[in-house]
Amino acid sequence: MKIEIRPAFDESVMAAELPVRKAVAEILKLLQSFELPELRKYPGLNFEKLHGMIEPTTGQQLYSLRVTGSTCAVACLLTGPTLVLVSLHEQHDKAYRK
After folding, report:
1. How does 77-91 read in b/e, with b if 16+ C-beta sit within 10 Å?
2. Is the CATH code 3.30.2310.20 the one for domain 2-95?
């Protein structure tokens, strides 16, 4: 699977504590080895549709992925398949607010 990283995601990773940065690096390695069906089924990522949330640039449905127990990434899927990492939230409950 191809991975695209948006600037907001990258900036959040760089500003995060070392354990979160390490977790993101691990997730990126894992995601690059996946095909789309594996992404949807992998239990540790908790890949979930964020109902009613759309990525403003592409108009695509947004999804969440678990990075750590309290940190999640918000992403969308493009054809190809390409996973676009849109943002990173160290407090996952705040990620789901519009």
Report:
1. beeeeebbbbbbbbe
2. yes
Q: Which residue has the tokens 């899927």?
A: 77
pTM comes to 0.88
pLDDT of residue 98: 47
Q: Where are the domains of the chain?
A: 2-95
Q: Which residues contact 23 (CB under 8 A, 6 or more apart)?
A: 67, 68, 71
What's the rounded mean pLDDT across residues 43-69? 91
- Band of the pLDDT at 24, cuts 50, 70, 90? very high
Q: Which residues pair with 73 in a beta bridge?
A: 65, 88
Task: Give the integer Cα–Cα distance in Å for 64 and 88.
Answer: 10
